[in-house]
Amino acid sequence: MRVVDTLSTCLEKCTKTIKETKCPRTNMTQRQDGEQTPLLNSNAHSTSSHTSGTDRSDTMWRSMSGNSLLNHRMTPRQRMIASNGSVANDLEALEYAYINESVGTLIEDPEATSAANEYTRIQEDRLLNVKYKSMDYDTCENKLFFEEETKKGYKFVLRKQLFRWVVMFFIGVFTGLVAAAIDIVIETVTSKKYLLIKDFVDKCVKVENDCLTVPLLIFCALNAASTFLAACLVVFVSPCAAGSGIPQIKCYLNGVIIPEVVRIKTLAAKAIGVAFSVIGGLAVGKEGPMIHSGAVIAAGISQGKSATFKCDFRILEYFRSDQEKRDFVSGGAAAGVAAAFGAPVGGVLFSLEEGASFWNQSLTWRILFASMTATFTLNVMLSWYHKVPWSLSYPGLISFGIFEEDNYLQYNGVELLFFVVMGCIGGLLGGLFNYINYKLSVLRIRHIYRRRNKLLEAVIVAMVTAASGYLLVYLSTDCESLGKDPTEHPVQMFCRDGEYNVMASLFFQTPEASVRSLFHDKTGTYHPLTLGIFALLYFLLATWTYGLQVPSGLFIPLLLTGAAWGRLCGIGLGYLLKDQESWLHIYPGKYALIGAAAMLGGVVRMTISLTVILMEATGSVSFGLPIMLVLMCSKWVGDLFNEGIYDIHVQLAGVPFLNWEASSLTYGVPASRVMSHPVVTLLPEEKVERIYSILTKYPHDGFPIVDNYIPDLAESATFGRFRGMILRSQLIYLLKSKAFKPQNGEEPVVGMVTRSDLARFRVEFTKGKLHLVELQLSKPLEPM
Amino acid sequence: MRVVDTLSTCLEKCTKTIKETKCPRTNMTQRQDGEQTPLLNSNAHSTSSHTSGTDRSDTMWRSMSGNSLLNHRMTPRQRMIASNGSVANDLEALEYAYINESVGTLIEDPEATSAANEYTRIQEDRLLNVKYKSMDYDTCENKLFFEEETKKGYKFVLRKQLFRWVVMFFIGVFTGLVAAAIDIVIETVTSKKYLLIKDFVDKCVKVENDCLTVPLLIFCALNAASTFLAACLVVFVSPCAAGSGIPQIKCYLNGVIIPEVVRIKTLAAKAIGVAFSVIGGLAVGKEGPMIHSGAVIAAGISQGKSATFKCDFRILEYFRSDQEKRDFVSGGAAAGVAAAFGAPVGGVLFSLEEGASFWNQSLTWRILFASMTATFTLNVMLSWYHKVPWSLSYPGLISFGIFEEDNYLQYNGVELLFFVVMGCIGGLLGGLFNYINYKLSVLRIRHIYRRRNKLLEAVIVAMVTAASGYLLVYLSTDCESLGKDPTEHPVQMFCRDGEYNVMASLFFQTPEASVRSLFHDKTGTYHPLTLGIFALLYFLLATWTYGLQVPSGLFIPLLLTGAAWGRLCGIGLGYLLKDQESWLHIYPGKYALIGAAAMLGGVVRMTISLTVILMEATGSVSFGLPIMLVLMCSKWVGDLFNEGIYDIHVQLAGVPFLNWEASSLTYGVPASRVMSHPVVTLLPEEKVERIYSILTKYPHDGFPIVDNYIPDLAESATFGRFRGMILRSQLIYLLKSKAFKPQNGEEPVVGMVTRSDLARFRVEFTKGKLHLVELQLSKPLEPM
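Output (structure tokens, whole complex):
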């Protein structure tokens, strides 16, 4: 299929294809008789000698060696120890030899990092190479592979295609179920919690006037305990489950292996942890983690095995390649988005925008199928839970509610101007948010690396959040009469009978419910001061919280902050323009929606996917244009100051992420400024000794095969002609099989661009904005 | 930008990039002193010598030669005559020399086509090559280009980027305006027409009992006249404006030059023509043509010049390359979809699905922007026209109306089963539709090629449509009491006072309104027999109409047919399951929607874009899953029989379309089975004489540059090592400039895959399903 795939592009490309693959094929057809296929066929583009990608060889390898060396359960050091003895184990250990060596000195000892400034360029290289590896998203294009594929026949292709749909279906169903479970648990527990606090508060104020510290203490203790549990799950079970998981999924889809990111134990820590952290009253949402959860579910189902439980169901083995797994994971991420926001199309676009490196029509349709299934499953479960089966009004975890008021989401041409200004404000605030969070994250990387400190920080944040919220409620004098507000547990506090404390209605319910309140409460419900203080406090809390060692989504706190200041803007505009009321109706709820979009756009800087997600969550096609305008403005303004929050965290983790498009500033920068030199190359014919020593000495995962090159001439300008690429895993397999046969060809190699080259180049290029020192200081994607 | 673009993919690809572009760059850096840039630098991948693509050279060329030779206004023969005399003109004529020769013998004389069976393979090649050329979607990657780009600086890049947005904005606005104008004209005129007929009919029946032939004659005459005008516009002004235009836009986005497809005169013929053909009462819609209109608007605005009006505003000249134009045209097509269906996201996905060859995050966002602007503009215009300014309830030309009835779009798990079955029925009917339409189209190609016959056929179809509709209304005894139905002009016919003829309500209004009636009319409005007869008749009429020489959309007739039999299914199911009414509510309107989706999916076989378009048109996220299920089933069932209708017409027109993915059946088919042999190659150093003779003798638009090859050895297995590709336009430019300097290198070329190779291969491969004879018989994309 790949041959014709590559054919299906255009004339020029076709000629290239011929150059790369056809030529040897025709030669072979011409002299098919009496010649065995060379196992190390380094002819043209593809050099792999086993037939179906890296993962397959891993599987075979594992079954041969019969131990758990490769299932990533042990530390590299343990692996080294375990692998002493047999030759096979020795070879296998090559996969980790280098990691072991340098992780031991550079990473495993946090105290050593303070001396990082003195490391030379080579050591920087090693560090970058050691932490993250590239996945193998290229299909092998060689004779053996095509022969095997042809042998399998058309039926096999059809069956594989069918199972792709079946797997996507189950990904959707399970993602929907997990989302429903999380939602139901959080709803039930928080409702009980807030009811308890409310009763205490109201009793205290009414009956015994001065016992208000008791509910404060209970509130703080409950929140701290819940947050502590969430942090424990992250710190002790799966550090990868911290944060929203979106940066990790971005990296995964981009082709970087992040250890343990799609393990079942990560899913468990994430799903249970996010419930605890939302119950713990932190300024977090449960939406971001759903995306990560969906991705893990996808990886688990599609591979038919689990590394966490060390079991292998021996099904779906033909999906065990990096490429197939990536496709399913992107489906899972999309299903997660769909379940989180009730936005199946937005989910697909999210996968495409973040996945960045692939677009395939039929895959996209399958992804949409998974998303649809997820939102449908969630809808059925939640409708059933809320005792309105088949009303299907719960498509996502966060629903913006129905903007049903007459003319509610209509807007005048003049209002578009206000929206643009609010978009710019969102961009400014987003830039500020990202800056503060960046500085905090750097501080965290430098000073909070011990487990107990991480736990402590999480508990402190939880208590500060609880206490400051409580304090604001205590100090607030904003009262509203009951019956007008949709809040479940109105707290009276110092208000008169028949009234409730408005600040309490914002703090003493789940953030999702508060967002809905800000969108839908009638004009005049909130005092401007209440909104201002709330927005400021929540902004600061959200900045501090994102990056804690708990599973935490960023969308809800941003929506909440944005909705608060957006509503404030709406109230202000309504006041200023009250003379124009005959033709201009300013609904504060609409401005809350605009503010929420602006804030979100200013921080995360997503484009088309965020637009569609918000459109679907709002449920209005005609309000799409204002949302898009606002997102454009906030992104453009924010981009003047820094990158999106996810990109910042990806950079802080030192992941060599390859963006969709290079920045316009790198216009005209030649690859020669970026690439590594000298290049570690292999000849078509190599001695085992040299291969072994190269594998031991260099951490690279792939080596170009060249000819016309004398290896000892280190300072040469060119490294021979390029004949193909061989992967570390393939070399190890070949070493074991001992099957070689060289062939000739030529194409000069003068340098080599790896992910770490690009990362280093980026640091050089953005002079001073981001330092390699900080890259070195960071842990592998933990502190997100 | 392109250097770093290509870098941003992955490790292996990067090594390839180095191989292809970096090596010469480094070499050059190393010996920059005292060496002039070679103009014919055939080093590595890119061989273009002028700096910014083909189109630029055209522009320069045109201004130099100072005549209208290249603006495509003359026939090739005229051009040949006009170009006699100067050497420059002689060279220019090379672009058309071959076309002239073979078009003259093969195409321009329709009578000669009957002897086509005897043509040899080489002549087939020529035919395929002559009719369609590839566009140049690759960026030139050579030293001169990068130097010029670097010189322009960052500011230029920013300005270009800004103008991309500005142009997209205007594309959206103008597309929306055109859509609004078409809609308003059609609404006004048809309303008058049906009012006239209704008055006549009702008067005839009541007053003078037997004058019913008079309104019939008036009806037929009005429709025939209107259709005649539409057909005249197509036949005499722009043959390209026939049909929906979607196949043409598909081809254009796929990289095939279809003559005149994005001209302003095509837009005029299309926009005015579609109004006439809808007013003419044909079974056509105005939605498909909007997509074509949007594309033409995009091409017009982005290029800042018009070939139809022979004017050049000298603005936006940096967008005059095939690639930039393609990007804008895809934006225009998306804006057209958005305006047609009120589906901005569906529009983006349509562009992506049909464009097939590109996906770029920022481009996609711009396309969404254009779509949003288009739907917004249309909304504002139509709201204003309907005297409800700012209610913004007209996002598209066809609106499915609001499914507001309580629980209307809810569904039970059991119903999903019915939906699947209906999807399969849709697939069967779609396959049948495509088969009949294919046979009819072949008949048309063979027998209806004279202009007067084309006009005659259109008029006949219009009269048959009018007469059969009238006859059905006359025979129908299905009466309903007034007041229940939303139809504007209820016709009483033979019904009692206070009642109206239901069949007349389907025929005597625009098809869009009929679709809405079928979706929303209360249970029991239609007699099953009425629906059955209507569906059958409309199915046959739609099959016959699509392919006529009038601008005609296919969506509405399909929606209408599908809605009719879908509603029939709903009524049937409701009757069968009336005992289960306690838990299962069958709303016929919902089944009409499902039937419409099934019919549409079965005929056009679009996937994700159609799903999203229907979702957005329905306005319900939770009903997305059933729609998707139905579309999946209908596509899969339909694919068992034939291809989608657009693909069939693309094939009939003989366009060498490159699909997104090759069919699974071509698994393991090597390029060597497909490619041309021998290959016309050029050496790095060539005599002008040979280049001139090659350009005269061969129609190819690009030639591989090779070395190590002796040109006279025709039967060699390899044609030297590939060094790059040079385009016909570049060669002509070089011949004029007389600047050459050769360089060495190697990469063997053994064959060459062109679009026509693939088309021929496809014919060979699908044994008997589609014959090359028919390809040869067809006209360039006219008969769609």
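Residues 2-124+686-775 of chain A form one domain.
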